[in-house]
Amino acid sequence: MRELAQVDPLARALPALFSPTPTAAKRTLEFFTANIRNPNTRKAYARAVAEFAAWCANNRLEDLAEIEPVHVAAYVEQLQQRLAAPSVKLHLAALRVLFDWLVVGQIIRTNPASSVRGPKHSVRKGKTPVLTAEEARALLDAIDLSTPAGLRDRALIGLMVYTFARVGAAIAMRVGDVYVQGRRTWVRLHEKGGKQHEMPCHHNLDDYLHAYIDGAQLAGDDEGFLFRSSVGRTGTLSERPISQADVYRMIGRRGAAADVRTKIGCHSFRATGITEYLRNGGKLEVAQQMANHESARTTGLYDRRGDGVSLDEVERIVI
């Protein structure tokens, strides 16, 4: 185990349950480093596995071979008392795939989580807060454009609204990912799984991006990050990419300045863009392609056109 820890410091953080031998520790470490490529999935699964290992330690389950389906089922029952169904299903999914990985690696003989059922959960409408077209327009118009940071914020929010881009794909963009093709500005988004997704720009987004690139003097630096972090409160930009946490805080500030009372986040602009596209006659299957979703059902979760209908019906109750 000492040799493994010297090779990779991450091995030192492995729960004792999953590192009883150097072979088991190496196999577990490979699961999180070689098998899972998405950093957000890696973090979520690591938290789930760590919580399960802590639960096992509290219940004196110290050997992987001792864990049976009844133990996993008992753990899931306890999770349901404090977590929502989607979170419980994520925890169970993490255990299933990890135990599968250990079975294939001949660390354990069977997967104790494979036969355990999670809670039922069916979603027809997403929970992401959505802005109206008027609120989104007011937020964009309220941004102070006198600094490169202001131009950046408008371009970044505009990108998420008009291309349905995920924030992770947006902040990974380089300057060269904004390019002209057929006399039209296009953007190249770096999506999950290493996929590239190309989209033509709405005329507003075209203006926002070129105003930002010119104002921040980024033209020609094709390999540099497009959306860069601010230097303190100066409004000038560094060469480092803006982080997702900084984007979230920026959105909060911009929303407050525009008197937007909806509690919005990074995903709100993706949902807002999809909803407004469909509200104005767009097709769900085209929205799916624009959002780079594998399934139209996923795109449908962002369709919040029914919210307005529900409000109108509620107002019919005249008392």
Automatic annotation (TrEMBL):
Keyword Nucleus: no
PROSITE patterns linked: CB, TYR_RECOMBINASE
GO biological process, one term: DNA integration
InterPro entries: CB (IPR044068), DNA_brk_join_enz (IPR011010), Integrase-like_cat_sf (IPR013762), Integrase_catalytic (IPR002104), Integrase_recombinase_N (IPR010998), Integrase_SAM-like_N (IPR004107), Tyrosine_recombinase_XerCD (IPR050090)
Pfam families: Phage_int_SAM_1 (PF02899), Phage_integrase (PF00589)
GO function terms (MF aspect): DNA binding
Keywords: DNA integration, DNA recombination, DNA-binding
Domain Tyr recombinase: 126-316
Domain Core-binding (CB): 22-103
Similarity annotation: Belongs to the 'phage' integrase family.
Official protein name in the record: Tyrosine-type recombinase/integrase
